Every structure is written in structure tokens, then in C-alpha cells.
Amino acid sequence: MTDIVAETPVMEQPQTHQKNATEPTAPDYWLSMAADLRETADRIATLAGTPMPHGFLPPSLSVAYAFNEADVEKTVPVVDAIAAALGSTAETKTDGRGRSRRRSRVTTVRVGRLDVRAKADMPVPLTRAQTRAELEAKVAELEAQLAQGGAR
Fold first, then answer.
1. CB 38 within 8 A of CB 115
2. 150: left (phi over 0), alpha (psi -120 to 50) or beta
3. Which of 63, 111, 119, 122 is least surrounded by Cβ atoms within 10 Å, i.e. has the fewest?
4. How far is residue 3's CA from residue 34's CA, in Å, rounded to a whole number?
């Protein structure tokens, strides 16, 4: 097996409080995940020689962040960093219509036979109807100000 070395963006680790020298340092999330993936790969390797039936989908790894408006500025860059680490780019997608619209930052990369997907949900932009309603309300407000003698 060869080691792949890539130049990847370094994500800032959240600091909850100042640690003193006696407190143990929490393990890095990504290094821990990499160790878990290596252990999983070792376990999968024990299946060598087991026939693979037709119709099985390729194995996949998914890193997904559910929408939380307060965390969008943190989760979207993680998707970009995962994409960069895997030699790809992420894109912003908007799916659905009306109330069912969803917007997310997504990357999907195939590494050998493994599909790796990272996704972070994002705020959904206003629909045309919502934008129109907001603009009509603003126009009505301005017209009312003009009727009363101008803007205040």
C-alpha cells in the first residue's frame, strides 16, 4: 500500500476553554476517523476470497451535517476541505420546489471502489413568490409614506 500525501486546508479546531498542562488533549477528530477507517479496512480484508454477488452497490462513506443556521459558517468549509483532501471540489446544490426546497454544499468522490460523500445543509434562498411578497410589502410601505408627505 502506498501513502497518499496531499496538501489540504487545515480546519480550525474549536476552542471551548483554555486548557492547562495537566488536562489531556482530545484526539483529533480526523485522525481518529482515519484510524477507524484503517481498522474497518483491515476487517474487510478478512473477507478476501468471499464471492461478491451481482447487484451490490459500491461501499460508501458519508459525512453529513444537518442544517443548523449557527453552524453553517463552520460546516460548509469542512465539506470544501474534504473535497480538496480527496482531489475534488464541492458544489452548492438546490433541490426541490416551494416548501420542499433544500440547499446544500456537496462533494462526491470515488476513491477506488469506495464512494465518499460529504454534505452540509445550508439556508434555502427565498422563492420568487417570497421575494415578490417582500418587495410588494416594501412598495406598499413606501407608498404609504409618500401618501403621508414623504419618507421619514
1. no
2. left
3. 111
4. 13
| Cell output for 116 | 465518499
Three cell numbers, residue 122: 445550508
Would you mind telling me the total number of residues written for the chain in this entry? 152
Q: How far is CA 136 from CA 46, 68, 140, 146, in A?
A: 65, 30, 6, 15
Residue linked to cell 426546497:
101
Question: Strand, helix or coil at 12?
Answer: coil
DSSP state of 94: E
Q: How is 37-77 classified by DSSP, letter by letter?
A: HHHHHHHHHTTTT----TTPPPPEEEEEE---GGGHHHHHH
Helix (H, G, I), strand (E, B) or coil at 7: coil
pLDDT tens by residue, 48-106? 999 887 888 888 899 888 877 788 888 889 999 999 999 999 999 988 877 777 889 99
